[in-house]
Design goal:
Belongs to the PEP-utilizing enzyme family. By secondary structure, the chain is an alpha/beta fold. It has 14 helices and eight strands. It has helices spanning 2-7, 33-37, 62-75, 114-117, 119-134, 150-162, 175-179, 181-186, 195-202, 221-237, 251-259, 272-280, 284-296, 300-314, and strands at residues 22-27, 43-48, 80-84, 139-147, 168-172, 191-193, 241-243, 264-267. The chain has an eight-stranded parallel beta barrel, surrounded by five helices. α9 (195-202) packs across α10. The longest helix is centred in the last third of the chain and has 17 residues, at 221-237. The protein binds phosphoenolpyruvate and magnesium ion (MG).
Length: 315
Amino acid sequence: ARRAALAAGTGPGRTSDGHGVDLLVNLGGAEDLTVIGAVGPAGVGLLRTEFLFLDRPDEPGLAEQREAYLRVFAAFGGRKVVVRTLDAGADKPLRFVTAPDEPNPALGVRGLRTARRAPGLLDRQLAAIAAAAEGSEAKVWVMAPMVSTPAEAAAFRARARAAGLAVAGVMVEVPAAALRASAVAAACDFLSIGTNDLAQYAFAADRMAGGLADLLDPWQPALLDLVRLAADGAGAAGKPVGVCGEAASDPLLALVLVGLGVTSLSMAPIALPAVRASLARHTLAHCRRLAAAALAAPDGQGARYAVAALAADQE
Ligand code: PEP
Ligand code: MG
């Protein structure tokens, strides 16, 4: 098993029996892109674009946006780069578009909902992404944050297509989207599960509240139930489904996510080698057994212990 892990090196992610899982990185914009290449990602699973918009009085222009996206695309050659459109509001307020007086910002006009108030902002961003994609080799996908319904997914894809972007998917961060995942997936090109917000909304627990960490634990079986629903729904619609929340960076939980049917994992670059090595030590059938054990546990702590014990046994 140790040899398999070492042999996993920097190649593509796969289980010990050869089931492929795309291992991608999450980027926030200001990283050193040459260092990230060293962990051998299959591409970028989540490019958070807020870095371009936060802490400034107005919207960056098309040329400035295009240049920033192009810089990332160029660093990833012919690989996949999933660009998330602006996730404004709640924990990421924008001076020029987020209302300062929302009584409940996490449940307010945030993520894709911002396009209700400022549709031009999204269209200009999509145009800038499309312009950058044209000038690069990267396979550029776009995705929208905070999507709740199939209609929102369909509307987002229509706007992306109108801008010239062929692949458009949505994040599953709201329980309603997980519950109706097959219809949401049918309305767009792929799903990407954001476990940070999905945990927040499933447990009605503010993700910024340190005192609620036990509820926000990504090992919580109720959260894993929603991941399973999202993966099953995407599978039924014949669409890929990734995880790009913090859950994907835990080498043990990554096995559970793969066992639940997730087809790609996107994480902080530093976490990628350990996740790759962990996958290389287990078969897909192992991963499915670990997923079943996690779902059968009473709580997050129980799921973690059950999976750790079983995984050690299986190696
Ligand atoms: C998430 O919610 O899991 C996610 C990946 O998005 P962010 O952390 O940027 O809200
Ligand atoms: Mg989120």
